[in-house]
Amino acid sequence: MRTMPGLSNVEITSPGYDVEYDYVNPQTLTHTLETKQISNLYLAGQICGTTGYEEAAAQGIVAGANAGRISYHQRCGETERPEPFTIGRDEGYIGVLIDDLVTRGTSEPYRMFTSRAEYRISLRADNADMRLTRKGMAFDLVNDPDRILALEERENMITKSIDKLRKYRLFVTEWATKGGVEKMGGDAVFRKGREGNMKTAEEVLQMPKVTLKDVEDIMGDIPSPPSIYDTVEASVKYKSYVVRQERDMESWRKAQGAPIPGDLEYKHDIFPTLSKEELEKLSKVKPKTFAEASQISGVTPQSLVFLYHHVMKRGKDRDRARSDDIGTQVQA
Q: Which of 66, 93, 160, 315 is at 20 to 30 A from 183, Cα to Cα?
C-alpha cells in the first residue's frame, strides 16, 4: 500500500475484505460438474473455486440438472446412465465458466467476465431463449407448453422479419433520399455511376447509424414488436462479425498444436488487446504450443486467437524477408 502516491506512511489496522475458503480442484470434475473420483457426486458453488452468487447459481443449474437426471433414472430402475447435460462455450456463459474451471483450473476465486468468452457477440440477453430453451426441452428441463409455444412464435416472427429485410430492395439514392443522406451512406451514394446500385433493407441496416425503425419506416411495414426488435436488429448488424468470429475460431481450433516461438516477447505494445494478467502469465509460463497456452488459467480464447494471428504473421514476415535476402544474394 505504501508504494501508492500519498500513502507512504499508511498503516493497515484491519483488512477491509478478505475471503479464504477450501475448495476442490475443479480439474477433478467433468463438464457435468460430477467428481471424477466419486460417481454421482456433483459439486457447485465456491467449493469449485469460484466467487459466489451468479457463478454459484450457474453451476447449480448444470450440477442440479445432472444430479436430478441420475436420481430419476436410478429410481426408474434403469442401469444405463442418462445422456449428460452440458452447455458449450458457444451456447452460454455457463458453458464458458464450467469449461474454464474443469480444463484450466484456477489459482484464485474465479469470476465470470464477458471477456472470457470468444462467442460473446452471439451470447446476448435478447437471444438466450433461442440458444437454450430447445436444449432444455431436449433434456426435459423445460416442458411448459406455453413457454414452448412462445418460443416457436418468437422464432417464426424473427425469421419472417429478417426474410422481409432480405427481399426488400431500393436504389441507394432512394434509401438516402427517404432515410437521410448522412445515415444512408453520405454524399457518396450520389456519385456518378452509383445511381444504378441497389441494396436490400438487410444491407442498409448493417450500416452503423441505421436502426431497424429507420428501415421499417421506409419500407412502410408494420413495426417489429418489442419482443423481437432487439434480436432482429442485432442479428442483422452483427451477422458479418459472427461469421468472421466463427471462421477465426475454426482456424484456431485446427492449429492448437502449432509452435510458439521461444523468443516471443509478451509486451503490451505488441499485444495491446491482452490484459496485464494475461501478459504476465504468458511471460512466466512461456508456452511452447498454443495447446499449452490454452491451458493457462486467465488467458481467454479470444486472446489466444490474437496471439495465433500475430505468430502466423510474424512467421510469414520472416519467410518473406529470408526470401528477399536470398534473392539479393543471387543477384549479387
A: 160
Q: Phi and psi of 289, rounded to 5°?
A: -135, 165
Rounded distance between C-alpha atoms, residue 12 and residue 18, angstroms? 13
Residue spans of alpha helices (H) in the chain = 54-75, 93-104, 128-138, 145-167, 172-179, 201-205, 212-219, 226-237, 239-254, 276-285, 290-293, 301-331
Q: Is there a common fold for 157-237 and 246-331? A: no
Architecture of domain 246-331: Orthogonal Bundle (1.10)
**Topology (CATH) of 157-237:** Arc Repressor Mutant, subunit A (1.10.10)
Query: Rounded CA gap, 147 and 132, in Å?
Result: 12
CA quadruple 81, 83, 87, 89: dihedral sign: positive
Q: Where are the domains of the chain?
A: 26-112, 157-237, 246-331
Coil, strand, or helix at residue 202?
helix
Q: How far apart are CA 99 and CA 246, in angstroms?
A: 18
**306 pLDDT above the threshold of 90:** no
pTM comes to 0.74
pLDDT tens-digit readout, 32-58: 999 999 999 999 999 999 987 899 999
Residues 23, 274: Cα–Cα separation, whole Å: 29
Grid coordinates of 98: 464450467
Specify whether the CB–CB gap between 87 and 135 falls below 8 A: yes
